[in-house]
Amino acid sequence: MSATEGSRTADNALGAEPQFGSVRLRSARFWSRFRMWLGEQIAVETEARTSFYLLPLGLMLGILAVYGADWRPSLSVCLVTAAGLAGLGWARPAAKVPMFAAFVALGAASAAYELQRVDTVIFSGEATVRIDGRVLWRDRDERGRMRYLVAIERTERPTLSRPPQHAEILVTARHAPIEVGQRYRGLVRLRAPSGPALPGGYDFAFGAFFEGLGAYGFALGAPGPTPPDEAAPTLTATERFVRMRLAISDRIRSVIDGPEGAVAAAIISGERSGIPDDVERWLRVTGLSHVLSISGLHMALVAGFAMVLVRCACASVPSVALRLPAKKLAAVVALGVSAFYLALAGLDVATTRSFLMIAIMLTAALFDRAALTLRNVALAAIVIFLTTPHALLTASFQMSFGATAAIVGIYGALTRWHRKRSDGTSERFVVRLLLFFVGIAVTSTVAGIATAPYAAYHFQRMAPFGLVANMLTLPIFSFWIMPLALVAMVAMPFGLDAAPFWLLGKGLTLVFAIARYLAERLPDAPTGLLTNIGLAILTLALLTACFLASRLRLVAIPTALVGLLLVPDRTAPPELLVFEDGREVAIIDADGRLSPLKARPNGFVFGQWERAYPGPADTRATDAKNPAFACETIEESSSAEPESSAAGAPAKGEKVKRAAPRRYCRATTRTGIRVVWTDDYRRLGQACDESDVAIVARVVRLTVCRSAARLVTLRTLRTTGSLSIAREATAGGIAVTSAIRMPSEEWNRHRAAPWPEAWRKPTDGDASATP
Fold it and tell me: Into how many domains does the chain fold?
């Protein structure tokens, strides 16, 4: 080594330690500044008392532990734990963890109490039975069919061992409509609320359980007439109010013809019967479906206009304005009007939640506190979680709460910005009008962004024109339709409601025209299944952005990006889907195309499969277009031994009662799984021998195939619910995923109950050939 190289090496050795020390010094300065900045942000959060928002978050975690993890804690233990932790947190206010843990225990106690309180009997299986009960509600759809909610008091032929308390009966036969409070007697085919159409789908038994609905029924003929000597029923106060609701709906539809009348009745009285499918599709595709259900928007508009009318009335009378607090009087009147609107809407769960939020905000106004604050939103969430904890898992609550939190949060930010830039002088009308439309655009954008993840998660669809449609229709809805609805309801007792209702109908016509135009230009797109972890991270980002007061809210940006990366379900779609009735089956090929067993599958079930696993544009491949299933028809006579003589042959001209033909279908999935489907149990052995998955759409006693093939029957599907079947990526075996994760859940216990007496109608020859 030369002298020059040696000197360079020595210089590098001498400079290495100072350079390392400089890096360490810069790192120490960075962390020191970061700790100082973090302390300042925490001080801002402490001053804003944002730790209060941890309380509803604790309730959420406790409720999710009960409903999501099949944890059934002791109610008394949860209450004692919550009280002890709350006492510890009260004694040490600086310690936030004990109070947060207390609300986690309180949320678990709330969910546990709700499960003990709700005693809905969900019907087990299917049965044809005569029922006798009392009509609690009725409506008529656009096709003229009547639908009744019946409180069942007696069942006959057969007498059911576990009759549901309430059933919704669809009657297609012509008959004189039965009034609320009268008797319903007739032969109906009862069935339980369906489970998820696929693993990860919505379980309709969950909502039915908490709504008290135990069965759905189809009337086999018109309901029986009321005996002439039967005394007139004594109506309860609830039934009288329901009759008043129906009379109001009939009055609205008599003044406003067509779909406008049906939608007007929906937004005023909550009765959504008679709305055409096309109108519902236009509103759904454009993201306007929320106008059909009485939600926070409707309740806020009604309460707001009631307050404006009362304050204007007080201001018009100087003596009243000087002696009475007009703001508080208006808040009391608005609270009463909102309560009447809630009762008129039928005390629906979603409407009740909206009323609670409005009631808390109006109560704040009574005590001279700001109404539109995030603290009031958190208080409303606490009340909802303590009264109806299962609402946390519903799409309506998640979307309404997300939109409300985002709108209130952006409202506060816009108000602070406007105060900073305002110089105290009155602004010109043009500027105020421009700010009004900017506010509508901003709030519509924020609400759309906040609700989009939940809409995509629950419904697997996105509305591309949702923002545009809401920006165009919200002014019409807010300043035309809802004010006229309030005026018409006030004028109805005096017979002066025709003109307001007519104008209201014209406003709805304009909304329909906008929705139809946008729906035809760009229909909604399926999103596929979304992951739970992705939705949870996006929810955390939303809560962080809305409820934090300092610059720590910027953490919501990277959190949302992580959520967007994790929310799509990137797992390969299954190869075979089986609905719980055993008759709706579909194969997903290598191109993502769904090939159903039936040429005309059940649209409700198949539509959910299409949205969950979107494929090419021509995703619905029938047997003619893509013969994934090769089927043969089995005549009943082919399975019986032929007669050895003509002695038993029917005489000429004699009618022979023949059973419906059976089918035997074969298919192969994209990885080579052999599938056989049949509704003839006598071919069960052959189905097992010829397949890897044998689906027998009958009630049979066998649960396994001797050939080691997977056996799926109505008996197994009753426990598992719908199935998705695929090839295991590693072991190469067949993976079967069930839609019913835990049959022990209260809303799924009917699956383990004894089957009803009329579960299965035997056909000729069944008695001797049942396996």
Answer: 4
